Amino acid sequence: MSRCFVMLKPGVINRRLVGEVISRLEKKGFKVVGMKMMMVPEAVAKEHYAEHKEKPFFGELVSYVTSGPVVAMVLQCDDCVTLVRKFVGATKPAEAMPGTIRGDFCTHTSLNIIHASDSDESAEREIKLWFNDEEIIDWEDNCQCWF
Hints:
By secondary structure, this protein is an alpha+beta fold. The chain contains seven helices and four strands; from the N terminus they run βααβααβααβα. It has helices at 10-14, 18-28, 42-48, 58-65, 80-88, 101-105, 120-130; strands spanning 2-8, 31-38, 70-77, 114-116. 30% of the residues are buried.
């Protein structure tokens, strides 16, 4: 099993799409092992996007991510990063295929609605930045519930 960090950005919360996006991720089969809603401290946003600090959009990206609450998640499954990236879709909305999260819900690159780790190494770094060990629960589906 591998893990991927996913962040639903302020636009998802503002548009009341949190449940829809999480539902789609769960229906695909991704196991949510960590999740929290939070306001992102500027220092965390800058560290998260450090690879972009010399790019002209860095300030706008940090400003957007800190402008409202986000939902940070850790997903788990086999080959998780690759599968999540395909399911989320291309970063540029015009390139994101219908049926992907970005293809169905995103119209502006600068106001992208979701972040997903782009490699296993990034996932490990991002998960450590956003979650402590006690916030990740690798649960087993052994419920004997009858509905």
